Amino acid sequence: xxxxxxxxxxxxxxxxxxxxxxxxxxxxxxxxxxxxxxxxxxxxxxxxxxxxxxxxxxxxxxxxxxxxxxxxxxxxxxxxxxxxxxxxxxxxxxxxxxxxxxxxxxxxxxxxxxxxxxxxxxxxxxxxxxxxxxxxxxxxxxxxxxxxxxxxxxxxxxxxxxxxxxxxxxxxxxxxxxxxxxxxxxxxxxxxxxxxxxxxxxxxxxxxxxxxxxxxxxxxxxxxxxxxxxxxxxxxxxxxxxxxxxxxxxxxxxxxxxxxxxxxxxxxxxxxxxxxxxxxxxxxxxxxxxxxxxxxxxxxxxxxxxxxxxxxxxxxxxxxxxxxxxxxxxxxxxxxxxxxxxxxxxxxxxxxxxxxxxxxxxxxxxxxxxxxxxxxxxxxxxxxxxxxxxxxxxxxxxxxxxxxxxxxxxxxxxxxxxxxxxxxxxxxx
Length: 429
Hints:
Layout: H1 23-33, E1 39-40, H2 55-63, H3 78-90, E2 101-104, H4 106-116, E3 124-129, H5 133-141, E4 145-150, H6 161-166, E5 172-178, H7 190-202, E6 206-210, E7 234-240, E8 253-259, H8 265-277, H9 283-294, H10 299-302, H11 308-322, E9 326-327, E10 336-341, H12 351-362, E11 364-365, E12 367-368, E13 379-383, H13 388-428
Parallel strand pairs: 1-11, 3-4, 3-5, 5-6, 6-7
Antiparallel strand pairs: 2-8, 7-8, 9-10, 10-13, 12-13
Helix pairs in contact: 1-12, 2-9, 3-9, 4-5, 11-13
């Protein structure tokens, strides 16, 4: 009798997780198939909440379909790469040509490629905590070791450059900066970014600057391109069409290299080799890049007072301010809130249990904080893509659930007190 053959997954996946689309998301799909309406706040997917890609971008794709039927250059079509160069130059980045631009199938693919081309077994990469979890996963998948530098809630999720530098070792190869940040919405002050640039230069670290939310800022906050500050080491700026241009499904991102390019020729050749192995990224959507970057920037209306994203963010801030149990460092960028529960009020709060209870009882899906590689268990991420009325309703449901937690906690204390008194009386007798 033959025993059943078990197909085991790769050991390289042991420390890889992506809970944003994990167990909770699968349960949400099950509930939807049962007929429940689920408000999904776990993923920043603009189309899900009625946002549309600018019409001019769709027209640019349609008009160039006849040019999109074959493979293009492994780095991407020239008009798209040149548009990225022009954007970088307009932002004050110098010394960049189309040769230093790589177009990928979204920033997600490029995160994997830029790390794969760099890392050897055991190399370390400094990654923020909380982070967008693909960065941590991609470091691990490519044989590296992630060293998380803390972005603490009490500091508005802004990192301390001195603390970062204390984590640098002889094995450190690179540092990741996510600004504006996902999941916290923090935008980093110029002084902090300059300090990070200088420490990267001192230690010859490659800087990977994830700026996918670069124009999504609020109330006068500034999104400062890291490439304008990094000069004496290699800097890679990663961005794309997904968020600012509400085109997640197009799967178009770019990595543009600047700073000290001398000495990086072999690395860039290795990156081109990897790009060649996957032939090229999605060609039709690349034709939208030039139109997107050179056209009217409609995102500015969305993030200004009266705009959809601005008003949704305002609703979240107002509802958290009214809550007995929730706290929030106001996000100045991106389209998320990394909300914390007050552990003085809810000492037993657990982010994963809360997310499951919220889904099962209130039909709202959020991403628990541990999904973003933090050591604490009292935060969760919501996206501000729904309209303001929907977000107010969602936070109302959260307050109901948290109130039930608090009531159970009080009842538990009372029961414990009664038991203690009863035991004391029994001993006296």
